[in-house]
Amino acid sequence: MSLELPLPLLLAPLPFALYALRRRGWKFLLPFAAFWVYGLALVNAVLFPLHLPEPGVGFTYASRWEQLSRLYHYHGLNLVPFYFGNCWELPRPCAIGILENILMTVPFGVLYPLLRPLPARRIPLLALGVGLGTESAQLLTMLLIGSNYRSVDINDTLFNALGVIFGVGALRLGQKISAFVTFRAPARYTLQMNPADPQVFAALYRQHLPTVYRYLYRRVGNAAEAEDLTAQTFTEALDGILRGRFQPGGNFPAFLFTIARRRAADFYRQRPEAPLDEPGSPEPGLLAALEAREDIRRLQSLLAQLDEEKRELLRLRFAAGLGFAEIALLEGKSEAAVKMNLYRTLAWLREHWEADNG
Among 34, 97, 217, 348, which one is most buried in terms of CB atoms within 10 A? Predict the structure, then answer.
């Protein structure tokens, strides 16, 4: 008895998944949909149709060991790499079989990195994992249902892995050709961009360098230290992107300033006597007053009376220029709570500023 994969049933959730991920943009949704369809096709090609044993028909096995022994005896199990047996006695079918095993996993190598950034060092492991996964799934399925309806060959694993590597290589080559033909570094980061792309990260660096430096300078009060911490922040951000800790579609400013805050905290732990941070502009109405040194000292005195949470809120909003949504993500609070806290802080500063100035 044969059992087919219920493809329509497994395709039905795809529109709902696309709707749930609609904020990721079409550059993510298109490869996601393609990978969903390809994954079902791969499972169908590797495992289906399932040939379930019927009573009184074919072989029955007393144990799984007997099943494996019979599979090996009839050349259905090969664990010797590059051993093809009598395959080359019919060179054309043999070559077609090898080519099919390679081409079967090329789409995996093309589509997977579009969904999840893939460092070069992980490509061989991914390829080997896919190859082992396909053959292991066949073997385990046959043992589960008690039917030797397929062959298991280590060479298929190697050719499947080679197909993944070819797919990744084709994707990288296509991306380089596309970048060469239509080179234009993006001015600003969008949710659909892949931050692991060198051009995109360069644009992110140019976009956020001033605000990160300004924020860190307000924290440490020293230009040289702020420059060093800024460089460390972007280096750690790039390493985190390559390691998959940040995905396309995430909130990059929040990711970046999480690192910047951690670097500033490390700086204070190492140098507890760091100078009082130079204040940012709490609101436009105070800009004129900041031109006088006496007013600056007065404002520093007011800021020193705030707790660290409120001072950090002012840094993130006015020195770093972050939006309420990004600050809320960093602080683990709602946007409404962040806005209320900021407005109360500004009101307190305004009230005491006016009181000190008569």
Answer: 217
Query: 152 pairs with which residues across the strands?
Result: 77
Q: What does pTM read for this prediction?
A: 0.54
Residue 224 half-sphere exposure, CB side, CA atoms within 13 Å? Answer: 0
One DSSP character per residue, 115-136 reads HS---GGGHHHHHHHHHHHHHH
Kindly report, residue by residue over 202-223, the tens digit of the pLDDT: 778 888 888 888 888 888 888 8
For 64, residues 6+ apart whose C-beta sits below 8 A from its C-beta are 143
Q: What residue type is 57 in one-letter code?
A: V
Look up tokens 């090609």; give the residue.
45
Name the CATH code of domain 187-278 (choices 3.30.750.24, 1.10.1740.10, 1.25.40.10, 3.40.50.410): 1.10.1740.10
Measured between its terminal Cα atoms, the distance across the chain in Å is 93
Place of tokens 């995905």: 247
